[in-house]
Amino acid sequence: MIRAVMVINTQGKPRLAKFYEFQFLRSACGEATGAYTQRLWRFSCSLYLLSSRAENVSNFVDAESIFGPDTRLVYKHFATLYFVFVFDSSENELAMLDLIQVFVETLDKCFKNVCELDVVLNYSKMHTVMDEIIFGGQVLETSSTEVMKAVEEISKLETASNAISLVPKSVSAWRSR
Amino acid sequence: MAGSSLMENLFQRTLEDLIKGLRLQLIGESAFLSKAIDEIRREVKSTDSDTKANALHKLTYLSSLHFYDMSFAAFHVVELLSSTRFSHKKIAYHAASHSFTDDTPVLVLITNQLRKDLTSTNELEVSLALECLSRIATVDLARDLTPEIFTLLASSKVFVKKKAISVLLRVFDKYPDAVRVCFKRLVENLESSESQVVSVAVGVFCELALREPRSYLPLAPEFYKILVDSRNNWILIKVLKIFAKLAPLEPRLANRVVEPVCEHIRRTGAKSLLFECIRTVVTSLSDYESAVKLVVVKIREMLVDDDPNLKYLALQALSVVAPKHLWAVLENKEVVIKSLSDVDPNIKLESLRLVMAMVSESNVAEICRVLVNYALKSDPEFCNEILGSILSTCGSNVYEIIIDFDWYVSLLGEMSRIPHCQKGEEIEKQLIDIGMRVKDIRPELVRVSRDLLIDPALLGNPFLHRILSAAAWLSGIYVEFSINPFELMEALLQPRTTLLPPFIRAVYVQSAFKVVIFCLNAYLLQRGNAASSSYIDKLVPDVPGLVSERDDPESSDLASCDSPVHCKQDEGFNPRVLNQSFEGLFAEHGGEETATRGQVSASSSLKDGYTHESVINLLNRVELALAPLTRSYDVEILERARNILCFIELIKRKMPDCLVQKEESLGREEAPASQIIRLMHDAFSNDLGPVSVSAQERVPVPDGLVLAKNLEDLETIFGDVQLPSLNSVSLGSPQYEDRAGFSLPILQSKDEPGPSNESTSLLADHRKQHGLYYLPSAKNEDEYPPANDLKLHADTNDGDEDLVKLTEQLLVSKKKPNYVKPRPVVVKLDGDQVPIAANPVRKEDLLSGTVRDVLLGSDTNHTSSQSKVSTKSSTQRKGKDKLNVDSVTESKENLGDIEKHDQGNPRSRKSKHHTHGKGRRHKSPGKKGDEREENGQKVKQKNSHSHSKHKARQRAEVPLNFVAQTPGIPDFLL
Questions:
Q1: Are the beta carbons of A7 and A96 closer than 8 angstroms?
Q2: Would you call B319 an interface residue with chain A, using a CB distance cutoff of 8 Å?
Q3: Which residues contact B445 (CB under 8 A, 6 or more apart)?
Q4: B306 lies in the same domain as B245
Q5: Of B121, B341, B527, B596, which one is least surrounded by beta carbons within 10 A?
Q6: How far is the CA of B545 from the CAs of A90, A117, B540, B663, in angstroms?
Q7: What is the number of helices (H) and of strands (E) in chain B?
Q8: Where do Low complexity bias regions lie (chain B) (predicted)?
Q9: Lowest mean pLDDT among A18-32, B166-180, B314-328, B532-546
């Protein structure tokens, strides 16, 4: 399964972090997030070092020391962002690289030429897209058009539900004066 | 009220504001964040759901990217979950799945909300609930919501269905009984016409099969069909992963799968699928020569690919295949070795691993030479990787692949000189280990050690200190092989040793002590030989004649004048008194000594290396170098330095007369000094051997020994004993260990009878008093025999370290006659083999147990939830259960029977199988292809839409393959 998805910029700042490994995040979040932060921090540092790596090297990083045994890590570098997937032996390394591609393609469709700022400002949309591609650590959908369809539907419903409620509420608020 | 909420709402910062504020960084990040958190804490309590949602949204963001703890808001998340508005619900579910843990107390409150959303008509809401459940489901939630999930599994909407399938993984994980309810529908989905659904279902099975593959063996036919029919790479990859797990369990299945896998390899253009096929073959189908050959061709293509990822993965695949098919690696030797200098660290590491896999007895020297050259020019990190892997490969299984130890030892020496070398500890270990195990190599070891010790430059490198420690120890303990002990002594005492850490310095001092003893002994021996030879000549020991011959009058005078002092000193000779009186004594007798020395040295000039003068010089040198150490703050150094200084003091005092006496009277008692030297030398020349890990256990518990678990009563016993002997009992402190009778042969510790007189006697007393707590000393000696004493070994150990057998083995296994030198005997103990953890009989976990139950239909106890939801299916199944009494083992036995029959009369094979199949058909739940087609309406329904479609294609593509072979394979499998 996929254990974690992270998007980190070249300065080591996390832009998106989603963990599917249950105990992994849970235990950390329970106790003041210390271990979790530390691990992520260490990881960010290692990624930061990555940026000094030559361009044409393989996209794998030995991550067992950070994420525990039987974990692999692939990353892909797009402009100022690293897209990082951590997974175990039940996933194929090259398929994960493809999946990163799918993710980025979808984002590209979503935001029209995605850039780091889009990722920063659209926190919930990023997660919506992510959730349509990966579900509980399993690959759910690999076609970016399908993902886009679902995401658009969700956004539509979201705005609709906001619009419906906003009007009556403000009206009632005005009336009560 | 409404007004205030509006105000709140209007002036509340949204997530977007928060992010923008963060980016502006007007007041610094941490200050801004803590302010934001304070705000959120306030807002989250608001009664207005908009405000609350906004606050939670912000909080989730901060928690996920800035790692703030949001457990305080758990209840507010639950509140918001019940909101009717989708956008609120979405925020709440996101927050819940992000922050809830199994221990979150409010988790029990959301069951109903989840149930409501799971049954909602809005598929997006259902999807939200499922997504949340897939991450936070607990045992309770999984149990309570199983019925809803079961319903969703049959949903007509793919969007919902695939998520429902995926959530099963977590549900099964938490609540294995859910398998009884949902498993059938999960299996049905393997044949869905929607590739997305199949993909997710296969993904779930892949995950499950990785944990406990055996349980899913009965599903092999379904997986096989997918493997043959599917053209979706994602699905195929997962199915291959499943087969990689299943194939090793069932050879017939492997037989069946290998062809389709090869077909995919030939056909596919997708690198991911290709690599997965390769991996499947190398891990699970490596017995099939043709498949491996095909794979190796593909691997070679990947190896020369420009894409470093492919190259890296190809190397990985090679290293998997290496143990079984070394030829595959050897074929690609050039590429592999070239990859050692790749820019990519991953590729470098992987090729290093492969190079190490190629190492064998015959090429170890050559490969190590190449690697050391690479180590010299690569960066420190990789250099140490190389050194580490050389060390571990050569050292594995007690230096199995090393035949020429001379070469290996000098390689170790060479490795220590590589500038980046940080493997000091490992090299130290191996040097000492080889020293103890391989007797024949000791001269070479001493030579290498000398070269290391003598080089003052090495002392500056802290990473080498451990190696120097080993070198010092080796040249101390095996000083008899040293070409020039005096030079060695110089090396041990060189001023730059101050750079060493204290514990290594202590080793140096102790080694110096050993060298001193050796030199003195050699000197005495020389003289003794000279003397005795003259005796032999004369046949009758003519004492006075000898004296007159050799001695000059002054020395006898000196002897007499010295003797009172010595007597006094002997009486008081115990460590404490001596330590105190040492300085004084030294000063007192200093002048006298020098005078004596001059005279004696004149009298005894021998042609050999150990002239009197040189020995005396040696002693002086030691005294000079170690005197400052008696004020060292480190107890180890302090003590050892004092030991050796006192000893020298003692010897020097006796030197003149001992020499005299020795020569004048061999029949008489030996002079105390030479006696001491002899004793010391004997003590030091005891051979140290490797100690088996299990040695301690093999000490038999003597009769009548009651090993009290609680050693409290020891304290009362020790209450009346002074401190030193208390220490001597504690095994932890090595400097006392040797004095206690039962010491383990720890490297540095050796008997030091002289200085430890007092505590030995104290101990003896103690032993007499409390013999109960001591191990019998005779036994002890038996238990730790000198390592290289073959005879003793054969006698004492009960067949566990049969050296004779070992040498035999070595001789047999050694095929290369071109080695001039035979491999020296390497002492091997049973404890050396790392105990292969006996495969822990893993308690079959609940999940796989249930899965097996369901697959084999042997479950009889149905959960209430199941009967509630799926009355139809459960009755169906219950009906089946009654018939279904077969267990796996039974069916396997049956299969075995068939095979036996088949061997006997191959002609009857088909019919036999058929009858068997018929016999079994009603027993086993519908799983098999042919069975499915003939049997059971339900099964037919299940297949109807998908199967017909598949059938057409399948017939077209692999008509013979599937149809013709089916009868040959027991229906259990395919």
A1: no
A2: no
A3: B409, B431, B434, B435, B474, B478, B481
A4: no
A5: B121
A6: 93, 107, 11, 10
A7: 51, 0
A8: 863-874
A9: B532-546
Is the domain of B571 the same as that of B636? Answer: yes
CA distance A75 to A63: 11
CA distance B750 to B576: 19
Query: What does the pLDDT read at residue B775?
Result: 53
Q: pLDDT for B2-25, tens place per residue?
A: 455 556 666 778 888 888 888 887
The residue in chain A having the minimum alpha-carbon distance to the alpha carbon of residue B89 is A158
Check B124 against A123: CB less than 8 A apart.
no
Give me the mean pLDDT over the B462-488 stretch.
88
- Residue A42's pLDDT is what? 64
Token pair for B836: 């292969």
pLDDT of residue B598: 37
Domain assignment of residue B571, yes or no: yes
Residue B496, classed as helix, strand or coil, is: helix
- Total number of domains in chain A: 1
Taking the Cβ of residue B102 and every Cβ of chain A, the question of whether any pair is shorter than 8 Å is answered with: yes
Whether the Cβ atoms of residue B692 and residue B784 lie closer than 8 Å to each other: no
**pLDDT, tens only, B160-212:** 999 999 999 999 988 999 998 899 899 998 988 888 899 999 999 999 998 88
| C-alpha A25 chain-centroid distance | 15
A&B contacts, CB < 8 Å: 169
Please give the residue range of the domain that contains residue A108: 2-175
Which residue from A59, A161, A176 is facing B3, i.e. has the nearest CB?
A176
Both tokens assigned to B736 = 């006392």
Determine whether the interchain pair B311/A58 forms a contact, defined as Cβ–Cβ distance below 8 Å.
Answer: yes
Residues with Cβ within 8 Å of B184's Cβ and at least 6 positions away in sequence, in order, are B854, B873, B877
CB-based contact A97 B69, cutoff 8 Å? no
In a domain, B471, yes or no: no
Q: Does some domain include residue B152?
A: no
Closest CA to B504 of B562, B445, B464: B464
Q: Domain containing A92 — which CATH number? A: 3.30.450.60
> Dihedral through CA B639, CA B641, CA B647, CA B650, nearest 10?
-100
Residues 941-960 of chain B with CB under 8 A from chain A are: none
Per-residue DSSP letters for B422-483?
A: --HHHHHHHHHHHHHH-GGGHHHHHHHHHHHHH-GGGGG-GGGHHHHHHHHHHHHHTGGG-S
Segments forming the whole domain that contains residue B819: 803-832
Strand-pair category, A134-135 with A14-19: unpaired
Q: Which of B451, B372, B469, B381 is nearest to B420 (CA)?
A: B381
Residues B782 and B807 in one domain: no
pTM above 0.80, yes or no: no
Q: Is residue B766 within 8 angstroms of chain A, CB to CB? A: no
| pLDDT tier at B575, thresholds 50, 70, 90 | very low
Same domain, B662 and B518: yes
Whether B591 has a pLDDT exceeding 90, the answer reads no
Q: Which two tokens stand for residue B70?
A: 């949001």
User: How many other CB atoms sit within 10 Å of the CB of residue B813?
Assistant: 10
Residues B814 and B771 in one domain: no
Interval B864-885: pLDDT, tens = 444 333 334 433 444 344 434 3
Give the tokens for residue B181.
């309810």
| Number of domains within chain B | 5
Provide mean pLDDT across the span B468-472. 91
Rounded Cα distance between B468 and B449, Å, is: 8
Low-confidence stretches of chain A (pLDDT < 70) are 22-55, 164-177
Both B513 and B624 in one domain: the answer is yes
Mean pLDDT of chain B: 71
Contact at 8 Å (CB) between B658 and B673? yes
Q: Which two tokens stand for residue B315?
A: 């190397």
- What would the two tokens of residue A36 be? 């979790």
Q: Residue B583: in which H helix or E strand, if any?
A: helix B575-603
